[in-house]
Amino acid sequence: MSLLDRDGLTEREFLAQYRPGDYERPSVAADMVIFTVTDAERDSYRKLPEKELRILLIRRGGHPFLGKWALPGGFVRPDETTEQAAARELLEETGVGDVYLEQLYTFSDTGRDPRGWVMSCSYMALINSGQLELKAGDDADDAAWFQVSYRLLREQKELLEDGYIKTLEYELKLSGEEELTAVVARTVTVKAASTGTDYKIVSSDGLAFDHAKIIAYATERLRGKVNYTDIALHLMPKLFTLTELQQVYEVILDKELLKAAFRRKVADLVAETDHFTENAGHRPSRLYRRKVVD
Question: Considering only 24-38, 45-59, 162-176, which range has the smallest mean pLDDT?
């Protein structure tokens, strides 16, 4: 026996008369924060190259934000999930398909897109730079990698009767074909019964939409997960030295790490191989690989 609703309708009858057009619906985009780590230019053959954390941006070839730089992405098609849309955009922009991909957050602030009600389901991808093959999409004039700098500018704390509000302002600097800058504020409200976090763009120069906020969110996610997962290993080639791995950790965290403590930290994440570096201008170093755990 079919259940009846308050109007005396079965589910089949309800769906037959339901009109989706009675309710305004948002467009949904999948935007990608694609990280890679590259070698900076070396001053000396015998000196190990420094690492740089980079993200992929595209220069918009159409309105809105014509000529501004934006994260790669696009609208989700009716026949795909947001994750499928993200994977499609990733493949179209980089030529890479089988990489680390995780959902970040759904950004749904009103007015975030001048075209109307557009929600962004954002994703983070990590790519070994040796895999890359750049090509700008249909709505882009150019695609380029930008070095990421994300540093705390100031911090303030306000006490409440049952908690506090802490606001941290960060400077986001993206260096590449141009220098793009933004200031993003992260406000954490802690009360006895709840905790909330809000991001706000204080200023943004050269970046489209609210993408400065999305990049800030992704950078903090990456830094946080580096401390308790093997996420950094997804930025490495198949074989690497421990020194190269430490450099990647340091460029993500934006701080130097003690060698002995770092090697203890990653001991369970990597496996040594029988291979060594060659023609590196210094004594050969053992190569390691990511340890795959069942």
Answer: 45-59
